[in-house]
Specification:
- Helices cover 54% and strands 12% of the residues.
- The strands form two sheets. Strands 1-3-2 form a three-stranded mixed β-sheet, with no helix packed on it. The chain has a two-stranded antiparallel ribbon with strand order 4-5.
- The chain contains seven helices and five strands; from the N terminus they run αβββαββααααα.
- By secondary structure, it is mainly alpha-helical.
Length: 184
């Protein structure tokens, strides 16, 4: 009975969003990077394909509750924007630089850069600083990914915006302003 209900719910979601939208089901990828582009089959979701995503645990921690603007509104949980921006920086260092992966990477980096500006303009630099520092504390691989994204993937404007929100955010949360792009 539970699988039938899930299948019906998925069908309703897909039908109601069919006009120009795509629903993605995600699962954590803790295996090798070879699994990144390989959808997984999930029998519990009516055999829907799910996309494995690296660092999903970081992304979905402390989600925000909001309303999807559809008819009378649909309550949803979405990733915290600060975690989303940090996640985009980390994940995109692992994407291939060719074909659709390059297009996706460029789009994701641009989204992160737009969020950097939004954090600064809305005086939420501290939110970003907290998420960024948490990611840095998760180890050297995370620090290296953030360093790579900061130095070689962001535009000049994006690097400036990142530097500005890290400096302001660190002051707000009581950390020393960063002297270098990534603090350990």
């Amino acid at each position: 009975m539970e699988n039938l209900c899930v299948r019906r719910w998925i069908g309703r979601c897909l039908n109601s969003f069919a006009a120009g939208y795509r629903v993605e089901f995600l699962t954590s990828n803790r295996g090798s990077d070879d699994c990144i582009a390989q959808p997984a089959n999930m029998p519990a979701l009516g055999s829907a394909s799910v996309d494995p995503l690296r660092f999903l645990d970081f992304l979905i921690r402390d989600p925000l509750r909001t309303i999807l603007l559809h008819k009378s509104g649909v309550p949803v949980a979405v990733p915290d924007p600060a975690r989303y921006a940090v996640h985009k920086m980390i994940v995109d260092t692992r994407r291939r630089a060719d074909g659709l992966s390059a297009i996706e990477r460029d789009k994701d980096i641009r989204q992160a850069e737009i969020l950097f500006e939004a954090f600064y303009e809305t005086r939420r630099a501290s939110d970003f600083a907290i998420a960024f520092e948490e990611a840095c504390r998760r180890g050297q691989a995370w620090q290296e990914a953030l360093q790579k994204a900061s130095n070689s993937m962001l535009s000049v404007e994006g690097q400036d915006a990142l530097s500005r929100i890290r400096r302001q955010g660190n002051i707000e949360i009581g950390l020393d302003p960063p002297e270098v792009p990534i603090s350990s």
